[in-house]
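An instance follows:
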Amino acid sequence: MNDRVRRAHGRSRQVSAGERVLVADLDGTLLGGDQESRLRLRRALERHPEITVVFATGRSLSSVQMLLGQDPLLPGPRWIVADVGASVIDAADMSHIDALERPLRRGWPGHEHIRETLRGFSQLEYQKVAQEGRCSFYLAPGGLTGALTSAVASMGCSWSYSEERYFDVLPPHAGKGPAVRQLVHKHQWPLSSLLVAGDSLNDLSLFQLRSHGVIVGNAEAALTERAPEDPLIHRSRLAGAAGILSALQHLNWVKPPAPVVIGYHRAPARWSKGRWEQPSSPNGILPTLTSILGSKNTDGELHAVWAAAVTAEGHDSWPAAFPDRLPMALLPVPSSRWSGYFHRACKETLWPALMSQPHLIHHDPAHWTDYEQVNAAFAHHIGAHAADGGTVWLHDYNLWLVPGLLKRSRPDLTIGLFHHTPFPPPDVFQALPVAEQLRTSLSQLDWAGFHTAAYADHFHQLLQDTTTVPRTGVHPLGIDQAAVAALARSRVPHATTTDSPLVLSVERLDYAKGPVHKIRALAALLDRQPELRGRLRFRLVCPPPEPGIRAYEATRIELEQSIATLNARWGAGEWQPVEYIPRSLPFTEVMDHYLAADVFWVTSLADGMNLTVQEYLTAQAASGRSGILVLSRHTGIAQQLGDAAMLTDPHHPQDLVDALHTALTTPPSRRRANTAHLIDLLDAATPLDWARAVIAAIGEQPGQL
């Protein structure tokens, strides 16, 4: 199946709220106009997958199939009305829909009978093209006589004459309009959701459907004269594709391309069981992008669209309108391909390299093909939504192949990519079996952004011998401190006691977070400091990854076994050293845990900014509490806080034990002072300021300050 037809096939068969149908002739209409106009129309239709495309043509099916294979500017149809309305085809598999064709071809005497009956009319020249349910001739205007039309009528047939050249003998009930009406009835399309477009007289019956219509500027005069004078029918001055696009814009069915396209593999909510599920935390990349595109962005200075994948199978599972009226451009990805792309290639091939764990890299060529195909789909999708000379802001390793693909098809675009993860040293990156393919693509970036100077330096070293080296920038992401502080002050205070200290970690399940390292360190501390037995509590809030990711399964098993062993060894009565919470929590509950914790413990082997650190410090400071942070020196935030934080190295087990013990024995007054000092050192930009700064940095020209 042609790629454009496959994309069209993913569209709904029934037109629900917000969905539309474009029925258009080919020659002179969809194929009419200059190349730039046709490209703009194709991109507009790709930006709006809710618009179902139907071809209504005089061509045969084989001719249409040939066009689809040869013409890259032709949009993919969901349905095809061919042979001047005698054939109706499902473009998903190019099969004739017999139930719709039978009433259209009723009374058809057959192709050979038509030719034999009209043999005496010398002005007719038979068209030697594939024909089904019709018989086509070339005919000069003077040859259209009453005797000829009477001969056609005597066979119980109808006829169509267009462009003063094409004479088609048809079954008595056939025609483009009647064929489209069959589709309308079958799929219950409201006429208000239908736009027909044509340029020749054999399109006339389309304009008798009482739907929206556009007669393009290069139409033959006879169509313009005979079409109904109806306010629903727009007579455009623009030729072909440009006329169609003007009608779509007039109806407000399409929006102009965006000056900024944000490419992130996920939407800010997850489509599950027929509804959108939004994240609870106000911080992180998803809420940040939501805030700059949604109602929180009151400045009106960013006109952008967010291109994101959504996994959905068939009509019943396709997402409803996105919440909060966010400008989303959803890219449908089959669940099976998403699994190979994200669960396998991203998490089993690329993630270990990012986390500087090259021994964990597992590369499967089949799953890498899924990664390539999803990136290619994203590149095509983003290109369709981007305005001429626009800015593209990509995010993370999930779209590493997009820069190379997009730069080839849209060299006019300025492309930036921000890495929210660590970027590994070049020798670790080169351990990837696909390192050169990725390097080639990344070198096509105009700009690359990072949370720390060290990660930016790794990137620059990796690409320093390529033909072009992207500009780089360091833009650490902060949190909405005001919102976090306000929530902290609004929560009911928890009673605390120095006799039963609480150590807290809040992190998703991931070997890179070092969760098993924590349990080992805790066991060693309890062995070394028996006075902590029965008192010290460690609470691990550790939500699992999305279903289907195998990369963390060994970590989950080892973590749960280690917790069970430790609790069995030291647990007494109601006290257990480890409280394990393996699920996502509402942010208000996370806040309560922040406020209750005496120590916040981060042991990442490698990490981005780690926004939970900023949340904990902000909550403690806002509520006047005396919690203390123990922070892995391998996090991005550690580069900002430096030695003012109590740093620890999870690669050295004894250091983990010593740092935790030091934190537990630090007097409350010193803890409070340390937290206040760390808050002063948090100079990461607020989410809105960060986003604006990044977009400005991407758009800067070389040599600009």
Q: What stands out?
A: Residues 365-385 form the longest helix (21 residues). Confidence is low (pLDDT under 50) at residues 9-17.
